[in-house]
Amino acid sequence: MRNICGLLALIFGIGGIYCLTNDYDAAGLLMLVGMGAGLYRGQLPQKVVRKLDVSQLAEAQVDSALEDWEKARLDYDRVEAARRKIRDSQLSQQLGLMQQEAARLLNYVEKHPERIAAANRFIHYYQDRAAGLCEQYMELEDTKLETSQVRQVKAQLKETLVSFDEAYSAEFTKIINNQLLDMEAELTVMKQSLEAEGISNTRQEMNGEPVELNAHSGPPATGIGRKKRPRRGAVTKVGQHSLETVQERLPVPDDLRASVLMQKAIMSGLAIALGTLGAHKFYQGKTKWGVAYIVLCWTLIPTFVSIVEGIRYFFMPVDDFYEQYYR
């Protein structure tokens, strides 16, 4: 919805300027009003309500499943809100990785609501405590106290949170394993049925290499639960109390990449074509900056600055844009 509003604002804005420069004042002003409406609607917080489909669950399971899903969704939002306010860049990066693990798990549960009971420990223990610890860390940062006790508690909170994405992965792997066991049993029955009809895997017999599905290894395609080397952006432990960052960049979740790329293109277009009016700043929710651009538009300074910003947005790596500007 946000990208659609931004795209409409870009179209209306360009159209409005074209009409004004060609003596179609009424149409131009109307289109500029449409641009303003699009920018206003686009900069508002986008709240996506995800509902769990419980139509396939037994009646006795419905209430519990919905309650667990609502708690999981709210705790995810609590962690995300804290992540964006925490000033410690290392911890913020690690929480981003943790949120990606949580998102993968929640996406899976949303597609397989019958398995939400298997995610009980993740929902009621790990994610609940992660949200509480994040909020406690944020509150300590807000006090701006730097006593030895405050620093010690913050270090302990940070070190605890660093391992949470691994805990999330382990829980996800356990949930997946149940499905793998069911798949393995189904495949065994199917193989026996085929063999009874005289059908066999001749390629397998020729190679002499049996194909086995190990339900205890986790899903190999996702790499969940396997950490052979530090991931990009991961915070790793060094010794007992120190932390270091492998790389200060949060990778874009796969399911958001298309949306991030579109928002990146829209912001670049707004800055280059309508930056004199501060359109890209309004779209980002930076209203004061947008007003400043309008006030100074007669100096042409906003025009040059916004063109540079638009080019920067366009050529900025998508991971950097996601972390700095995507909302």
- The string of secondary-structure elements, in order, is HHHHHHHHEEHHHHH
Helix content: 55-70%
Number of helices: 13
Total beta strand runs = 2
**Could you give the distance between the termini?**
12 Å
Instruction: Find the structural class using helix and strand composition.
Output: mainly alpha
Strand order of the largest sheet: 1-2
Outline: extended
Number of domains: 2
Tell me the fraction of residues in β-strands, as a range.
Answer: under 5%
For the sheet with most strands, the description reads: 2 strands, antiparallel
Q: Can you offer a commentary on this structure?
A:
Its main location: membrane. Residues 264-311 form the TM2 domain. The chain is mainly alpha-helical. It has 13 helices and 2 strands; from the N terminus they run ααααααααββααααα.
